[in-house]
Amino acid sequence: MKNPPVSNSQIYLANNINLIEFAKSQGYILENGGRRALHAKQSGGLYFFRSRDWMCLASSPICET
Fold first, then answer.
1. Residue 60's beta-bridge partner residues?
2. What is the mean pLDDT of the chain?
3. How far apart are the first and last CA of the chain?
4. Do 54 and 44 meet the contact criterion of CB atoms below 8 Å apart?
């Protein structure tokens, strides 16, 4: 099954979302996860890492830079 096309406005929204605020709005409780990281409690290991000017998820390739 092919993915539906993505509009420019959807791309803009995805690129400009605040992941921390979104996680909080979904009910996650964030706690200190170490230096430059936040951990979402009871998430099964969801971490948000600060990498330069980016906020990224633990599995994201940008976190490796």
1. none
2. 79
3. 33
4. no
